[in-house]
């Protein structure tokens, strides 16, 4: 929203705006509690659980930036930083983003939803879709969980096709 002329397209996949003015999903609350209790989480195992089609080598590559527990501070802390209330730290910027996306966004948006995501799945994504002006009917990726980008080739092809037809 700071540079509206520099962006003409969005690809949105299993995310949300942390505005703090709607309840966090049960899935997110469970993830937040689990992350707090498991400071040395096994990143590769989490990726395999979410993306069973990944090879072990691919899943382990997600662990590379986290050689030991000290490097996982951000992964552990992130769920605690998601605004829970309208006056929570960070909520105002997400509220401004929602306002921009719903009233000022002039670009085109392509949304893909990992239908098996227990944290930011269909209900959360459809609520977000309703907040983005002109957002397309989402591509539903039935076998995908949270890391829907790991089903990337099909999503990328559909997004390119959508943008070529809609934007030209």
Task: Describe, in plain words, how this protein is organized in 3D.
The chain is mainly α. The chain folds into two domains: 1-21 and 90-168, Alpha/Beta hydrolase fold, catalytic domain (Rossmann fold); 25-81, no CATH class. Helix content is 42%, strand content 9%. It has seven helices and three strands, in the order E-H-H-H-H-H-E-H-E-H. The chain has helices at residues 26-37, 43-50, 56-61, 73-81, 91-103, 122-129, 152-166, and strands spanning 9-13, 108-114, 139-141. Strands 1-2-3 form a three-stranded parallel sheet, with helices on both faces. Strand 2 (108-114), helix 6 and strand 3 (139-141) form a beta-alpha-beta unit. It is globular and about 45 Å long. The mean pLDDT is 92.
Helix-strand blueprint:
Blueprint: E1 9-13, H1 26-37, H2 43-50, H3 56-61, H4 73-81, H5 91-103, E2 108-114, H6 122-129, E3 139-141, H7 152-166
Parallel strand pairs: 1-2, 2-3
Give keywords.
single chain; 168 residues; mainly alpha; Rossmann fold; 2 domains; three-stranded parallel sheet; 7 helices; 3 strands; globular
CATH topological fold name of the largest domain: Rossmann fold
What number of structural domains do the residues give? 2
Radius of gyration: 17 Å
Order of helices and strands: EHHHHHEHEH
The major beta sheet can be summarized as: 3 strands, parallel
Distance between the termini: 23 Å
Strand arrangement within the widest β-sheet reads 1-2-3
Brief overview:
The chain is mainly α and 168 residues long.
């Amino acid at each position: 929203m700071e540079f509206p002329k520099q962006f003409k397209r969005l690809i949105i996949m299993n995310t949300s705006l942390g505005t703090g003015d709607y309840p966090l999903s049960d899935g997110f609350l469970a993830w937040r509690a689990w992350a707090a209790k498991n400071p040395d989480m096994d990143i590769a195992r989490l990726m395999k659980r979410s993306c069973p089609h990944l090879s072990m080598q691919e899943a382990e590559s997600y662990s590379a930036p986290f050689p030991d527990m000290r490097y996982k501070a951000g992964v552990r802390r992130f769920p605690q930083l998601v605004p829970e209330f309208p006056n929570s730290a960070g909520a105002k910027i997400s509220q401004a983003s929602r306002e921009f996306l719903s009233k000022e966004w002039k670009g085109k948006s392509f949304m893909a939803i990992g239908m098996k995501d227990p944290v930011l799945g269909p209900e959360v994504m459809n609520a977000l879709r309703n907040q983005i002006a002109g957002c397309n009917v989402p591509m539903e990726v039935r076998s995908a969980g949270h890391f829907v980008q790991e089903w990337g080739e099909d999503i990328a092809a559909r997004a390119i096709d959508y943008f070529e037809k809609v934007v030209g």
